[in-house]
Amino acid sequence: MGSLTVFCYFLFSYIKVCICLRIVGISVPTLKQRGESSTLTCDYDLEGGRLYSVKWYRDNEEFYRYMPRLRPPQHAHKLDGVKVDLEKSTARRVHLRELTLKSRGLYRCEVSEEAPSFHSAQAEAFMEVYYFPRETPRITGHERAYQLKEPLDVNCSSAKSFPAPDLQWLIDGQKITDRSWLIAFGAKPAPQGLLVSTLGLRAPTRQRMKLKCVATIGTHRRERTVVIEINSSSWNKSFSLLIMITLNIVCVKIS
Questions:
Q1: DSSP strands (E only) in the chain
Q2: What is the radius of gyration, based on Cα positions, of the chain?
Q3: Are 178 and 145 within 8 A, CB to CB?
Q4: Distance linking the first and last C-alpha atoms of the chain
Q5: In Å, how far from its chain's centre is CA 47?
Q6: pLDDT tens-digit readout, 180-216
Q7: What's the pTM?
Q8: Contact 200, 154 (CB under 8 A)
């Protein structure tokens, strides 16, 4: 009975140590633009314990640590795409400057207690870094002369971006959802790790059509609009020529 009491006491003590440290919350921006800065925060509750260290990782590689016993307490490790501003970094936040496309990844905060427990807790979140230039999408194939009811053969290509932008077509303000009219060419690689998206449109023509292509990354968008007009006079000429040919064939058959 005495052994059971001792065992329960140690079990209770172990559980008490385990719940002393907890991560209250981690804040990592989900989407940042290349060249911007970013502040990552890690909020934790020691619940009476003493802090031993706070470490930050990107994709399991450590790039920053804070240890209150050391002087200075902050230390940054070299990591491609990660530039730590030590003056703006503390035990609860780390400030990154001049983000690049290589800055994207899974960021993890790991907090450890002082002796005797050295218990640790961690939390993680993903940060995407994008590049979206000011250039609008490029539309090709609209310059040619179309006949009425002839299928369109136009393509829209985004500017070099990262990640690959989403593309959509609109005709006279109406979004095209009919997949039989759309041809997705996918994303193709471009220099500096960027990508170009291309989406084709194969819709039947009308007398006048306002085509708009929209490229989006997150809440950012770029768009381009072109207008296609079918020359009615040339269509009437073609139609009249067709009637004349038909009449001649009928006359020949009658004679």
A1: 22-27, 31-33, 38-45, 51-58, 61-66, 74-76, 93-96, 105-113, 120-130, 138-140, 154-157, 166-171, 174-175, 182-189, 195-201, 208-217, 220-229
A2: 32
A3: no
A4: 124
A5: 38
A6: 999 999 899 999 999 999 999 999 998 999 999 999 9
A7: 0.71
A8: yes
Strands 105-113 and 51-58: antiparallel
CA–CA separation, 132 vs 159, rounded Å? 8
Structural domains of the chain, with CATH: 19-130 (2.60.40.10), 138-232 (2.60.40.10)
Q: Which residues have CB under 8 Å from 8's CB, separation 6+?
A: none
HEC per residue, 89-146:
CCCCEEEECCCCHHHCEEEEEEEEECCCCCCEEEEEEEEEEEECCCCCCEEECCCCCC
Residue-wise pLDDT for 54-113, tens only, equals: 999 999 999 999 999 999 999 999 999 999 999 999 999 999 999 999 999 999 999 999
CA 72/CA 74 separation, integer angstroms: 6
CB atoms within 10 A of CB 212: 21
Cis amide leading into 137 (omega within 30): no
Amino acid making up residue 30: T
Structure tokens at 80: 């491609």
Sheet architecture: strand order including 61-66: 31-33, 120-130, 105-113, 51-58, 61-66, 74-76
Beta pairing, strands 31-33 & 120-130: parallel
Question: CA nearest 122: which of 21, 20, 23, 16?
Answer: 23
